[in-house]
Amino acid sequence: MMGAPAVLRAKMGAFVVVIGGGFAGTSCARALCKSDERFDVVLVESSKTFTSCPQSNEVIAGLRDIGAQQFGYDRIAADGVRVMLQAATAIDAAGHKVKLADGTTLDYDRLVLAPGIDLDFTALQGYDEAASAVMPHAYKAGEQTLLLRKQIEAMPDGGTVAIAVPANPSRCPPAPYERASLIAHYLKARKPKSKVLILDAKDSFSQQKLFEQAWQQLYPGMIERIPLSQGGRVTGVDAATRTVVTEFGNYTPDVANIIPPQKAGRIAALAGTVDRTGWCPIDAATFASKLVPDVHIIGDACLGGGIPKSAGAAQAQGRACAAVIARDLIARRIEPPPLLTGICYSLVAPDYAFSLSGVYQPKGDLFAEAEGGKASPVDAPRTTRAAEADAATAWFKALTHDAFG
Questions:
Q1: Under a CB-based contact definition with an 8 Å cutoff, are residues 366 and 305 in contact?
Q2: Residue 90 is part of a domain; what is its CATH number?
Q3: Same domain? 240 vs 194
Q4: I want to staple 337 with a disulfide (CB 3.0 to 4.6 A). Which of 204, 258, 362, 397 is the partner?
C-alpha cells in the first residue's frame, strides 16, 4: 500500500481510477495494469479486507468459516496497481478529479465505478440500519452474516426463520433461495422441528423448478414460500416486536432475515451517474455512463438488462471494460463489443448444487442473452448434483484468484 501526496497524477501515460474493490473493480484494475505499461491504475477502496458474498450462505449455515470469505489487496498492489485504502468522498466530473477522505485528490483520464449495491433503507417501513441489528439482512457479507448465523444457532427447535425476498433488480437473484436451502440443511440436522418461511415479492424466480425439486427431496415440509400473488411481499417491520408486515398479514418469526430492495452504491449517486431507477444507465458496448462523460460503471451498480447482478458477471464486465478503455486510450481502434460469459452456482446442500451459465451481448443500452447459455437439467441424477457442488468450490477458488491474486 502507499502513502499519497495531496494530488496524485499519472506517472507516465493514461491515468485510470477504479473505485470499488469487489470482483468487478479488482478484475478491471488488474486487467488494465497488465494490458499496457503506460497505464497508471489506482484502485480506491475503503476497506482493508473484502468479504465475499458468494458462498457466504455456507457461513450462515455453519458449513464454512468467515475467514475463508475474506481477501486483501496486497497481491493486487504487487501486480502494479496503486491501492489506496480510502473512501472516495466526492467526484468532480467536469474537472476529472476524485477526492478521498484523507484530502487526497486524484486526477483521472478515465474513471471506473464499481461500487456494488447499497441497501435501500427507505423502501420498507420501519426497516433501517438500527433495525438490521435485530433483523439482519446479511446481504453485505461480514458482520451481518455472522449475526444471522448466531440468531439461527440460538433459535429453539420448533422455531421459524423468515426470509423476506425483494423484487428484481437485486444482487444475485437466486441467493435468497440458496440461503433458505442451506438454513434448512442446518435445521434438519440440529433443530428438525423448525421451518423456513420465504416471504417473496416475486411470483417466480430463477431456477425455481430446480430449487423446489431439491426442497421436496431434501427438506420435505421444512420450507414454505408465499409468493407475491398470495401476499408474500413484505412492506414493513417492527423491530421491537420482531414483526414482519406483508400486504395480507403479519408474521412474528423467531429469526427474521429482511433483504430490502437495493440501489447502486452511494459514490455512483455522488458522481451523478444514477437515474430515477436508483441504478446507473450505461452504453452496454463500452460500459460508459449515459449521464457523465469519461466515466464507466461495471458490476451490480449498472442497469444491465438481461445480465444478472452476480460475481461472475461483474468479473466479466471488469475485464471487458478494461479492454474497452485500453482500446480507446492506447490502441485507439474500433473493435466489436465483447461478449460476456458467466456462471452462477446454487448450493442447496453440501453435496447438491446446480448451475446457470449465460452469454450476453450488447443490445442498445442493455445486455441481452446470446446463444450459448446453459442451465442444469431438472432430471439430473444425484451424482451430477454432487459433481456440481465440487465444481462450485473450484469456481469460487478460480473467481477469487482472478480477482485478488
A1: yes
A2: 3.50.50.60
A3: yes
A4: 362
pLDDT at position 10 over 60? no
The CA distance from 151 to 161, in Å, is 9
Give the model's pLDDT for residue 367: 86
Residues, the chain? 405
Of 287, 320, 338, which marks where a domain is finished?
338
158 with 247, same domain?
Answer: yes
pLDDT given for residue 2 in this prediction? 39
- One domain, residues 154 and 247: yes
Angle subtended at Cα 31 by Cα 26 and Cα 35, rounded to the nearest 5 degrees: 155
Residue at 389: amino acid letter: A
Asked if residue 199 and residue 224 are part of one domain, the reply reads: yes
| Residue span of the structural domain in which 317 resides | 7-116+265-338
Q: What is the pLDDT of residues 189-198, one digit of tens each?
A: 999 999 999 9
Contact residues for 77 (Cβ-Cβ < 8 A; gap 6+): 1, 2, 83
The answer to the question of residue 379 being in a domain is no
Global confidence as pTM = 0.94
pLDDT digits (tens, 9 = 90+) for 96-126: 999 999 999 999 999 999 999 999 999 999 9
Which residues face 36 on adjacent strands? none
Q: How many domains does the chain have?
A: 2
Q: Where are the beta strands (DSSP E) in 205-328?
A: 223-226, 234-238, 243-246, 250-251, 255-258, 262-264, 282-283, 288-289, 295-297
Distances (CA, A) of 142 to 56, 113, 181: 9, 22, 20
